[in-house]
């Protein structure tokens, strides 16, 4: 093996050592073996291939459990619509469900038949939508579609109103016999739940924005006729897009 000549030390100079990289020993850290990719486990494009997960491995972390508190005023509707809530959760999502009357809550749990890892989250969103005041037939859309959301805000977040002014604002949003609320829902393809001073809107992201702007205009004092004309223009634009 050829040795690298060492420079001689002169007076007042430091010794410079030249290291040949080929002479250094190659060592592997303990974690490097786990990061290495087997050449046989790659496809034609050079990307790594992994084995498909078993359906039981999709539910990570063993059994998952959720508990949703049920308000007192929603206990009676829960008993009335129990079969509509029970069937999609148990038969389609393959989850266990029970009511805890002492804590006034509804408990969800995965089991060995659960195949979808996001099933318990979908069921949680479905139950919470029902507790906010949405109908079961409307809330069940959260189980079927992935691009639905719920936006909640209060009237005081838009404008500080009290007494009769607050009552009139709620009346403008609902309209006579719920006409204004139904018009906004049909024009924006959303669902609106009025719970005292809280407003909950369910729909896609873009449709929620349009419905929220209409509700905010009513809270600020805009007449319903002006809001209707704005909704007509926006709904016509939405139809042209699709």
Automatic annotation (TrEMBL):
SMART domains: KH. It is found in: Nucleus, Nucleolus. CDD domains: KH-I_PNO1_rpt1 (cd22391), KH-I_PNO1_rpt2 (cd22392). Keywords: Nucleus, RNA-binding. One of its GO terms (molecular function) is RNA binding. Residues 147-220 form the K Homology domain. GO terms for cellular component: nucleolus. Component of the small ribosomal subunit, ribosomal RNA processing complex (SSU RRP complex). This is Pre-rRNA-processing protein PNO1. The gene is PNO1.
